[in-house]
Amino acid sequence: TGGHTTEILRLLSCLSESYSPIHYIFADSDKMSEAKIRSFEQKRAETFSNSKFTLDRIPRSREVRQSWTSSVVTTLYSILYSLPLTYKLKPDLILCNGPGTCVPVCISALLLGLLGIKRAIIVYVESICRVETLSLSGKILYYFSDYFIVQWPDLKEKYPKSVYLGRIV
Amino acid sequence: FRFKDSLAEDLRRADLVISHAGAGSCLETLEKGKPLVVVINEKLMDNHQLELAKQLHRDGHVLCCNCSTLVETLQSMDLSTLKPFPPGQPEKFALFLDKVVGFQ
């Protein structure tokens, strides 16, 4: 969604051609991200003529401020949906930055890893907006990601296992 | 106007921006190098949205006020005290990720 998409596209902006194909996964309720992604990929194709990408939508796991109990239900539903998708894509690397959408995908990837089907490296980058506290996705994925990147020093202190590279978006 | 697809053009022409503390608004403005006064309405905002505004203020990149002190702030502000906002460095992320994945 919105700010998350802008941030993730900035994160991708300096990646080499080797990161291909890129599979974008976003919420079905998201109207604007597809256009931003296509525009980004169009520019990317000018430098890397062989770059490939796909777009997939999954049900949104949680609305802002949705109650805890109903969030569990909607997230489970999103997991049911994202599990076959993740199985189909079998990513080597998952890069996510905090929208609720990323949690079911990461959980699916973890399950596939546990089942010995495919082990993905999960890299989580917390949003630049998070200076002192983590988002809910961040709090969950801090324990389940392989690399957890924060963009402000306060968070690095509070979450010592995180990686601090300064501002990267 | 209520909604525009992009404020880029308006930002380009502005000499001063007065905005709420939304992250997108703040960052977009600072990246264009425009002086920014952030108006904080604690009643409307999520606590977490304030985090970025407060940090930007602490780092000297923006002026802050609330609705009732806005006029006074505009009258007495010294924009030369604002520090430029350096851009983020996604190249550092790319270097890090290359190491993680094994591309060197």
TrEMBL record, chain A:
<dbReference type="GO" id="GO:0004577">
    <property type="term" value="F:N-acetylglucosaminyldiphosphodolichol N-acetylglucosaminyltransferase activity"/>
</dbReference>
<dbReference type="GO" id="GO:0043541">
    <property type="term" value="C:UDP-N-acetylglucosamine transferase complex"/>
</dbReference>
<keyword id="KW-0256">Endoplasmic reticulum</keyword>
<protein>
    <recommendedName>
        <fullName>UDP-N-acetylglucosamine transferase subunit ALG14</fullName>
    </recommendedName>
</protein>
<comment type="similarity">
    <text>Belongs to the ALG14 family.</text>
</comment>
<keyword id="KW-0472">Membrane</keyword>
<comment type="subunit">
    <text>Forms with ALG13 the active heterodimeric UDP-N-acetylglucosamine transferase complex.</text>
</comment>
<dbReference type="GO" id="GO:0006488">
    <property type="term" value="P:dolichol-linked oligosaccharide biosynthetic process"/>
</dbReference>
<dbReference type="Pfam" id="PF08660">
    <property type="entry name" value="Alg14"/>
</dbReference>
<keyword id="KW-0808">Transferase</keyword>
<keyword id="KW-1133">Transmembrane helix</keyword>
<keyword id="KW-0812">Transmembrane</keyword>
<dbReference type="InterPro" id="IPR013969">
    <property type="entry name" value="Oligosacch_biosynth_Alg14"/>
</dbReference>
From TrEMBL, chain B:
<keyword id="KW-0328">Glycosyltransferase</keyword>
<dbReference type="InterPro" id="IPR039042">
    <property type="entry name" value="Alg13-like"/>
</dbReference>
<comment type="similarity">
    <text>Belongs to the glycosyltransferase 28 family.</text>
</comment>
<protein>
    <recommendedName>
        <fullName>UDP-N-acetylglucosamine transferase subunit ALG13</fullName>
        <ecNumber>2.4.1.141</ecNumber>
    </recommendedName>
</protein>
<dbReference type="GO" id="GO:0006488">
    <property type="term" value="P:dolichol-linked oligosaccharide biosynthetic process"/>
</dbReference>
<keyword id="KW-0256">Endoplasmic reticulum</keyword>
<dbReference type="Pfam" id="PF04101">
    <property type="entry name" value="Glyco_tran_28_C"/>
</dbReference>
<dbReference type="GO" id="GO:0004577">
    <property type="term" value="F:N-acetylglucosaminyldiphosphodolichol N-acetylglucosaminyltransferase activity"/>
</dbReference>
<feature type="domain" description="Glycosyl transferase family 28 C-terminal">
    <location>
        <begin position="1"/>
        <end position="87"/>
    </location>
</feature>
<dbReference type="GO" id="GO:0005783">
    <property type="term" value="C:endoplasmic reticulum"/>
</dbReference>
<keyword id="KW-0808">Transferase</keyword>
<dbReference type="InterPro" id="IPR007235">
    <property type="entry name" value="Glyco_trans_28_C"/>
</dbReference>
